[in-house]
């Protein structure tokens, strides 16, 4: 299996990637996603970023951000301190043009 796959139901990210970012066993990732200990957000690229997606996972005051293309290739990967945003749509009026 590739590390990130894309299909009709969305993205599937290998649990090894998420587990490594948060220092948890990959086997624990699915349960933590189900119970809300790990949350995620997917953003679709527009204009110059069309054909790319930003997948961000949040857990324990940290974030993992992956930028992927339509083939599932990880173009960039970063971890940093962050708190999960509130659920719901993003208010683009309050965001800078490039985040």
Describe the 3D structure.
- The chain is mainly β.
- The chain has one domain (about 5-85).
- The chain is about 15% helix and about 40% strand.
- The chain has two helices and six strands; from the N terminus they run E-E-H-H-E-E-E-E.
- The strands form two sheets. The protein has a four-stranded antiparallel β-sheet with strand order 3-4-5-6, with helices on one face. A two-stranded antiparallel ribbon has the order 1-2.
- Strand 3 and strand 4 (about 50-60) form a beta hairpin.
- The longest helix has 8 residues, at about 15-20.
- The radius of gyration is 13 Å and the shape is globular.
- The model has no long low-confidence stretch (mean pLDDT about 85).
> What is the molecular shape?
globular
Provide the structure class. Answer: mainly beta
Overall structural domain count: 1
Residue runs with pLDDT of under 50 for 5 or more positions: none
Largest sheet: 4 strands, antiparallel
As a percent range, the share of helical residues equals 10-25%
First-last Cα distance: 30 Å
Order of helices and strands: EEHHEEEE
Quick check: average pLDDT? 87
- Widest sheet: strand ordering: 3-4-5-6
Radius of gyration: 13 Å
Count of individual helical segments:
2
The fraction of residues in strands falls at: 35-45%
Number of strands: 6
